[in-house]
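User: Please predict structures.

Assistant: First:
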Amino acid sequence: MSAVPVEPVETPEPAWRQRAVERSTRAAKLRAEQRVQRFLDAAQELIADKGTTDFTVQEVVERSRQSLRSFYQHFDGKHELLLALFEDALSRSATEIREKAAAGRDPLERLRIAVELLYDSSRPREGKQSPLFTDFAIQLLVTHPDQVATAHLPLLGFFTELVEEAVEAGRAVSPKPRRTASLIMQTAMFTAQAPAAPVGAHPSPITVEEVWNFCLGGITGGVAAREPESAPPAKKAGAVKKAGATRKTAAKKTSTSAAAKEAASGTAAEKSAAAAKSASSRAASRRKA
């Protein structure tokens, strides 16, 4: 006698059905990605033509030759489209900076290359919107800070790696490498946008060299610049020996000076005692007279 199962046994989905659904999903995903890219390309063209992000969603739709309904299927509004452009630019820049910084010989040199590239890509150019720092980036930072922070993650991750490498190599000090990396990034990006620093009556542009030296001083205190890790051991030993000799000479001078003061003090005391004795003798002679 066969047992009757308490619960019905689920029949596995046929393999052909799974394949059909997956194929359909892949095709739909590909079409969606193509539509999104056409909207992004259209927005980028409008930015290039106008030199600003002052365009409408309708203009993007017309330039992309798609429907308004399709636009709102993929984007919540213009701010989300701009955020997509911003995030895409950051991702591409992170890849480019990582590839070029790999040419550095040590962690600090790789970090310097990364700072210079980030500074250059963030500089405003006449008639052209910078991909990393445009007028809408400021607006997004105020209205959608969490999304902007997420967009920065690829770049922040790479800068954090560079700071950690410098700390491990003994070339930098940072108890919180990720926060240090964030400060370095913001210094490079925001300073690149500043027209100039006020120096007296005339504005003075802040150069990338000044930005790097400022960041370098923040993580090394200038030690790395004065005493590179690659300095020959003999040179370091000579410096230590010279410093020791200098300290001995200073100690000797201090000792000699103290002895001279002590001798001078003793001589003055002896003179004072002699003068007092002489005065006492004269007083005694007058009393006898």
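Second:
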Amino acid sequence: MAEPSGSDSLRTSLGSLQLANPVLSASGTFGSGWEGRDFSPLSRVGALVSKTVTVRPRHGNPPPRLAETPSGMLNSIGLENKGADYFLAETLPRMRTLCRRIIINIGGEAVDEFVELAERFCEAGVDALEVNLSCPNVQEGRLLFSTEARMCERAVTAVKRVATVPVFAKLSPNVTDVTAIARAAEQGGADGITAINTLIGMAVDWRRRRPVLGRGIGGLSGPAIKPVALRMVHEISRAVRIPVIGVGGARTAEDVLEFVCAGARAVQVGTAAFVDPAVLVSIVEELARLLAAAKTTITELCGSLQAPIPVAPQPAVAPISFAPQPAVAPRPGPAGQAEGR
């Protein structure tokens, strides 16, 4: 396999996991990478992140499962996959031929399922695990593991107890305070935070009086959610001591550097790959040029976002007093008639 694309300016780390560059595929948007192998040399990206793998096969949600929206898309796939047995036997060996770093995204509806998957994939020798605590298209959208701090900490603690590789907790934006959930993941032993998953949304066909998606709701991704993702990455990076992986709407090298400046050590690119399957490698190449021109590195840029300049308090302004005005008699009009409006 060819060496990953990168230079010293692009190198980054996620805890003990060293990466040649910060560009990763986003789970669920690039399959196992096998589907994109003919478009660009995937050995040049920082890491490939798998589609979510579950213990048993899942058929997913009823169609339609995708809907394009302004500046993004809705999906309601429902974690369709062939299960861990198939992935370990057929998919993982193919992934290894594509990229030096492999991160497996694991999903479960119970803590025991996360633990079983963590044990099996660590034994198989992957580079890291991404624990999908936040898919809005399963568990009737309840998101128990990423909306309740106690449940999040419990799940991460259980996975860390058996894991021999770094563990990243993927969190949902569909919460009141994402930093509380991030701190719970850190307390449970997570080696990093992936933020964010999709925002819950829907599309409506008013002529049919029905939702567009077969399940009604789905996860919104793409450029439309980038401002939300940037804000949450920044908040999380200031709230925890572990690395943050940014995801949500990145489609250019400029986007990636914005996430890095906001506090991300690496950035996943997802929906953009539906438009251009070669975009991951294109971004890596452009990153090198931008960093060279700016005379900086990913390490130097990470978390360098400056706080807003506080606005100096303005002196109080006395309220304006409106004194009553004397009544004005109407002017006489023609033939002695009063002129009115």
